[in-house]
Amino acid sequence: MEADPRFAGFVAERGQALLRYGYVLAGNPHDAADLVQEALLKLRAAWPRLRAKDNPESYVRTTMARLHTATWRLRRRELLAWDLPEHGHHDVLPHGDEQAMWQALAGLPRRQRVVLVLRYYEGLSDAEIATTLGISRGTVRSQASRGLDKLRAAMPAHGPMSVGNEYEERR
Amino acid sequence: MNHVEDTLRRTLENAARQAPTALPGTLAGRLETRHQRRRHRAQALLAAAAVVLVAGGTAVGLRAGGGTTMPAARSSPTPSLSATASAVALEPVEKVWPQAAWTAPVRAPGGPELRPMAMIDDRTLLMSAGRTFGKVETLYAYDSATGDLRRITDVPAPKGTTLFATGFGLDGTRVAWWTMTKGVVHIWAAALDGGRARPVAGHPVDGDDAPDGLGLAGDDVVFSLANGGVYRVPLTGGPVMPVPDGAGLHLLSWPWAGTPGAGDPRRPAFTKLVNLATGQTSTAVVRDGERVYACGVRSCFGTAPDGKAFTRARDGSRQKEIPSGYLVPEPPVQSRFYVRNIRDDGPGIGLYDLVTGTLADTGIREEVATRGEIPVPDAAGRIMTYRLKNRYHVIDLSKIP
Known about the structure:
The complex is a heterodimer.
Chain A: H1 7-26, H2 29-46, H3 56-69, H4 96-106, H5 110-120, H6 126-133, H7 137-154, H8 166-170
Chain B: H1 3-17, H2 27-45, E1 53-55, E2 58-60, H3 93-96, E3 101-105, E4 113-119, E5 124-130, E6 138-143, E7 149-154, E8 161-170, E9 174-181, E10 184-191, E11 198-204, E12 211-217, E13 220-225, E14 230-234, E15 241-242, E16 250-253, E17 256-259, E18 272-275, E19 281-283, E20 291-295, E21 299-303, E22 309-313, E23 320-321, E24 337-341, E25 349-353, E26 358-364, H4 366-369, E27 376-377, E28 383-388, E29 391-396
Antiparallel strand pairs in B: 1-2, 3-29, 4-5, 5-6, 6-7, 8-9, 9-10, 10-11, 12-13, 13-14, 14-15, 16-17, 17-18, 18-19, 20-21, 21-22, 22-23, 24-25, 25-26, 27-28, 28-29
């Protein structure tokens, strides 16, 4: 069971994708950077014990989602800060409704946001989300439903907005 | 798709593209530093109990000597490298030990990443190749004299495999390894000169138990389980039998097996050993006030009451202090070679020989060192390998007198 020294390779290869994921989880580049680093540190600590079947990327993504829902203090002083653009990234989102959505997302409680990101960005099923976050499926459903309701309320009405909880009915 | 969900999905996808793109090239190295610092701090907090981390089948650990630095070198017998270190021009490994240093390729034909595994003979390196993390798909033999890379065999992963091939053990002509399906260990073997990999045996285990050691003993494969117990099965196939006197033990290196296993995080590994061929036993000496972190067949590694790290024979003799600049918290390979800083004021990694006091420059510098690259030993502790640019650098420690 040989040690795997390729942690650096993993960081180099997957760091950017993880940063993107951190960005949609956290909503801003600084917290995204912190989330990625904290999760990678945990991966580094676990690296010698990773078994052949373990997928380091899924390990990191799960860690990031959990960290962000936990009462995790952002901006840990020991973490590396690097030059990040100062402007708000949502400024360059192309469509008006996306800007509104991005801002509405920022107003959601963390857990609701994380559930929605896992469902709509990561494409996980509710059962997978429940496993990832260590919560019940019922909680996943209620958090998603509440989050969607808030987003719906915050979005400017255009087009035939659905009412009620259509998503839950379909599922 | 309802409108909110659709907009949400689109927003997240587009926002992800707007994420900061400047991931610093130094990130992995910085993470490595922080990881070590945390490890030290955690160990300081747990000072009452020996903290042993498991790496590559070897239990390792260290004590944070009252801070984030390793034991000081106050009475170090080695040349001090502090203060003036930056002015010292070290010779590279290839010049210091030309008979021991050579390079190997990092990719197999067609692109899969190669990884050094073990020496087959004096000049041939067993390498694994695979396209995804941790999955060995093919075995190769690299001839360091001719530069020839020869395919040995494909490594099967039948449907239902839950743990891919690992735990490779070899002699001069054959190699064996294990895989797992649910609740069953599968032992495989192949001839090193080529041919198909053959299933040798299947062995049911309880729960999530799995092998924690494997080797060859004559014409048998021997292996042990994480829950304890040493077993053997003929390479040609047949029943898996418990090795007499091997109950509860973990294989270190045939014929030596012992307790605790390397997977026990609280107790120093292999302080008790049994030679399963002769019945001879060995209990490592641990003196009052000191902490032993891990033992091998011949030696142990620990810290003295004054916090200085040492390596010594299992019987307590031939104790050697490990001097300053102790960079990587792992026991010296063969109780002799360890990785250390070559200077105080900048990056650079050297390999230090405790026996002769020789320090050689690995060539790992900022670009590579900060990506976390360090020389790592194989399971047997015969070679150390590291990657620089597009070559593996191999140091065959057995060629260093």
